[in-house]
Automatic annotation (TrEMBL):
Residues 139-157 have a biased composition (Polar residues). Residues 1-25 form the signal peptide. It comes from the Bacteria. This is N-acetylmuramoyl-L-alanine amidase.
Length: 395
């Protein structure tokens, strides 16, 4: 005979179970509507329906599949914004596109899947399609699940638009004050060009409404490199973008830098520090043993590097359509401003003031605006699939 205590545990166990007859896994409803210059797709999912969204070209389309779960929603959804039409068939929905799109927001909660699309460049879309992996899918399992109480629970992909404040992007106009940076042959000062470009980019991002923006300097003052990194860390920035237009003999075109091999040496040095706990405290790691902290820190650094690399490739792709690029456009180097362990960081050389052609271009507001729009697209693209480092830092 079961004791009172055992019965109570059993009752609790049953209370935690799903209803005895779980709903069939299916898509039971769907709507598609224009939203701004994009579109919003809302699906009603039952019974833990799994889904996957992929992009394809020729013609440009998105395909949402729900493996093993039938489509019981409307067979077609008509046109909306960049979507020419949406047709459902068995366990997939196909969105034929008038214009290339990117994911703006994906949110899944209580049986509702919301997918928001926004316009993007044809090259961006082609790249999404060529990457050969889903743009988003249900139950995305990543290192960010570490330490969570319920590993294996279905989790919508991280989206910057989830509840809470918008992610913060820190823009870092290089040089300033007594440090003019490079001075071009026509006397153009790098510190002025990069500040003007950063202000332009800030406008683009604020108009997009998908992130907050802070600048390490917004006037002509000197800011030490370490302070720029600390500025971003104190504010728990999601992304750090440093802007420069330096000199390089004979070189021309834009390029982008992420932290090179020295990042591993830094990680090693960090881990050896006796005050690891203090360091980690600054990173808001959960309170766990020093060994586990070291592992989390190294995971975080790996995620940060991956986030930086992803941002760099988006920058190359978005700038590439609009401005001349330096060959081997994405390079690695030990820039001090790229060394925040938890914040994906890139340094963009918008061109070289040492090159008369680049100098002439960078002096023109319309050229800087073009660069800012391209960087804005890259940042929006990056935010649409927010870095896991952010999840770890918040975990
Ligand atoms: Zn510079």
């Amino acid at each position: 005979m079961l004791g009172r205590r055992a019965l109570a545990s059993l009752a609790l166990a049953f209370a935690a179970l799903p209803p005895p007859w779980p709903a069939e896994a299916a898509v039971t409803d769907a709507t598609l509507e224009a939203s701004g210059n994009g579109a919003r797709l809302v699906l009603t999912l039952t019974g833990g329906t799994r889904w996957r969204l992929a992009a394809a070209t020729r013609p440009n389309r998105l395909v949402l599949t729900t493996p093993g779960s039938p489509w019981r929603g409307p067979a077609s959804l008509g046109a909306a914004g960049p979507v020419r039409r949406a047709m459902a068939d068995r366990s997939q929905l196909r969105l034929d596109l008038l214009r290339p799109v990117a994911l703006k927001r994906v949110e899944e909660s209580r049986g509702r899947l919301i997918i928001e699309l926004e316009p993007t460049s044809a090259t961006s879309f082609a790249r999404l399609a060529a990457a050969g992996r889903p743009l988003a899918e249900s139950g995305t399992a990543t290192a960010s699940n570490l330490g969570r109480s319920q590993p294996g629970t279905t989790q919508a992909p991280r989206s910057p638009a989830r509840a809470g404040p918008l992610p913060l992007v820190v823009l870092d106009p290089g040089h300033g004050g007594r440090d003019p940076g490079t001075i071009g042959t026509r006397g153009t000062q790098e510190k002025r060009i990069v500040l003007a470009a950063a202000e332009e980019l800030k406008k683009v991002l604020e108009a997009g409404g998908r992130c907050r923006v802070a600048m390490t300097r917004s006037n002509d003052r000197f800011v030490p490199l370490g302070d720029r990194v600390e500025f971003a860390r104190r504010r728990q920035a999601t992304l750090f973008v440093s802007l420069h237009a330096d000199s390089a003999p004979g070189a021309r075109g834009a390029s982008v830098y992420t932290l090179g091999d020295s990042s591993d040496a830094l990680a090693g040095a960090l881990a050896r520090r006796e005050n690891l706990a203090d360091r980690a405290g600054g990173l808001r790691l959960p309170s766990v043993s020093p060994e586990v902290q070291a592992i989390l820190l190294s995971l975080m650094r790996a995620e940060t590097r991956a986030g930086s690399a992803r941002m760099a490739s988006l920058v190359v792709e978005e700038l590439g359509g609009d401005v001349p690029l330096l060959p081997n456009t994405h390079r690695q180097a030990g820039f001090v401003v790229l060394k925040a362990p938890e914040i994906p960081s890139v340094l963009v050389e918008m061109g070289f003031l040492s090159h008369p052609g680049d100098e002439a271009a960078l002096r023109r507001p319309d050229h800087r605006a073009k660069v800012a729009r391209a960087l804005g697209r890259a940042i929006h693209g990056w935010l649409a699939r927010a870095g896991t480092a952010e999840a770890l830092a918040a975990g």
